[in-house]
Specification:
Blueprint: H1 6-35, H2 41-73, H3 79-88
Length: 95
């Protein structure tokens, strides 16, 4: 939200990052799903669970839920970065 336009940020953010997120999630899903083909039960359960978690995170959370919450919050989206920047940066004593 560099220019202060929340609606444009909500539209452009997922559009700019969707390909990278989808590619990364696909790779992680395939790796974890491969664990699901193991003969060892604990590894198989962990692989299927992690594959499902990556799928839900990439689709529901990052591409649907986060933009929706940002749109609902409106201009209140940008309050934390400025607050945290002021509190977390070191203050220099005139040097």
């Amino acid at each position: 939200m560099r220019n202060g336009d929340n609606t444009r940020a909500v539209a452009n953010g997922p559009a700019a990052t969707a390909r990278v997120m989808t590619a990364a999630a696909t790779i992680m899903f395939c790796v974890f799903a491969a664990f699901g083909t193991s003969d060892e039960r604990a590894l198989r359960v962990m692989g299927v669970g992690l594959a499902a978690a990556v799928l839900v995170d990439a689709t529901v959370v990052r591409l649907i839920l986060v933009p929706a919450v940002m749109e609902v919050l409106g201009e209140r989206n940008g309050w934390f970065p400025s607050l945290s920047f002021r509190r977390l940066t070191l203050r220099r004593n005139g040097t």
